[in-house]
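Researcher: Quick test of sequence recovery. Tokens follow.
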């Protein structure tokens, strides 16, 4: 049985090529993604990550190669592919004039689904937006908008979702909110193809990681497998200092109470 025929394979890409005039962006890209997993595609700016996503989502035609999504050939069965996927781009595509609930109801109606209000309420609860359901999206934070955007992409229960740099421009706390949402997707059986510029994001989320460079996949494996490609690091025992992210999240989540207590204790010791 080939990877294309395997029921465990959600996305199959083999020999994918794409050029823009004399610029060869993709030179034979190969990878498979298992159902219900998170697959991170990494690469420098201009490496071709977004081009891959556009081809997989039928927005762009390839020059060569075999590509299937959810068992459907992208070139010959584009309508079936589009019914199987959802795409979330680098910036949240939400209507700021409408409320969060109205955004979800609108998309459900456009998809001709029964009981759009019930669908909207379910997604609002799932993504922690129920308390802000009636609020205009223009008043949402960046993380809330992104969570709403992802929630909108799940209407109709697509088995495959593409997230193209979903945390671009978000602050650290909002990034963590989106990470939680992405993990929830895979937990519910959705296959996620994630492109990102943030290596820590891939480390936190992905079941498998592929690095796209010079038009080809250079490495593809789990984080543990990729770590074996380099010599083991020398172990040194040093005092672990808090990171800037630790400090930032402490301040924004509990008002810096623990940091304030530590400062008071330090001052008392100096007296």
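Model:
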């Amino acid at each position: 049985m080939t990877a294309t025929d395997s029921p465990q394979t959600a996305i199959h890409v083999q020999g994918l090529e794409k050029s823009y005039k004399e610029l060869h962006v993709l030179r034979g890209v190969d990878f498979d993604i298992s159902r219900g997993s998170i697959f991170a595609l990494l690469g420098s700016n201009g490496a071709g990550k977004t081009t891959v996503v556009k081809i997989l989502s039928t927005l762009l035609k390839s020059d060569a190669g075999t590509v299937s999504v959810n068992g459907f050939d992208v070139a010959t069965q584009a309508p079936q592919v589009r019914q199987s996927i959802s795409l979330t781009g680098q910036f949240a595509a939400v209507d700021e004039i409408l409320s969060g609930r109205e955004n979800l109801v609108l998309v459900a109606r456009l998809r001709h689904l029964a009981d759009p209000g019930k669908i909207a309420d379910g997604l609002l609860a799932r993504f922690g937006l129920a308390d802000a359901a009636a609020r205009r999206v223009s008043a949402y934070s960046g993380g809330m908008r992104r969570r709403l955007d992802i929630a909108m992409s799940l209407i109709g229960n697509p088995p495959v979702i593409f997230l193209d740099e979903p945390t671009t421009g978000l602050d650290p706390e909002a990034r963590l909110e989106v990470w939680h949402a992405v993990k929830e997707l895979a937990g519910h059986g959705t296959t996620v193809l994630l492109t990102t510029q943030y290596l820590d994001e891939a480390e936190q989320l992905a079941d498998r990681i592929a690095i796209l460079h010079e038009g080809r996949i250079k490495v593809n494996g789990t984080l543990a497998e990729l770590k074996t490609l380099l010599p083991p690091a020398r172990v040194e025992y040093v005092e672990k200092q808090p990171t800037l992210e630790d400090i930032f999240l402490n301040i924004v989540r509990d008002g810096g109470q623990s940091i304030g207590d530590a400062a008071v204790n330090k001052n008392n010791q100096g007296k």
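Residues 61 and 75 are 7 Å apart (CA to CA).
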